[in-house]
Design a protein that fits this description.
about 70 residues, 434 Repressor (Amino-terminal Domain)
Length: about 70
Amino acid sequence: MDKKEFLKKLGKNIIRLRMQKGWSQSELSRNCDKDRQSIERLESGKINPSAFYLKEIADGLGTTPDELLKF
């Protein structure tokens, strides 16, 4: 799997986890102290997040970074 495909799959998995909670991008952004545009870029595979960024997203979703990478 190349980088582009990996980031797209990561984004889709984050969308799936967010939607399971019934949250909008704005709600997730508030829960992890990020701006909504940052969440949009992450979910669309346009950014390559750091490990700590993934931890912050996972914390906001009430899950683990490992769960974000299960795709």
